[in-house]
Amino acid sequence: MTVIVAGHTGLVGSAIYELLTSRNENVVGINSKVVDLLDRKATFEFINDHKPSIVIDAAAIVGGIGANNSFPVDFLSKNLQIQNNLMDSSHEANVERFVFLGSSCIYPRACPQPIKEEYLLTGPRVNITD
Fold this sequence. Notes:
This protein is α/β, with parallel strands linked by helices. Helices cover 39% and strands 14% of the residues.
């Protein structure tokens, strides 16, 4: 069984990759240096060449709060492209399991440091209909 971990050098992806490697799983890590996941054709070729049983998608373009605030459409658009390319190529290749790990900022803006778990999700609520 082959497992592909997309985003294997990121925070979560690296932990998953290291755990699977320590268990002697046949794991293939990919990041932007291995394959450009924004390139649909390259993503499809990579998935088809490796024929994984499982794809774990922890891949994203990240840049922190400042970058996300400065370029929100770019980040959203590119990350949607990455996710669509991985999901569509996995579906076409009949991958048995696809695990998608999404993320969001869940800590309050003016949070005391060092941050504690109980501070999470304590920021003001935003009404998206206003």
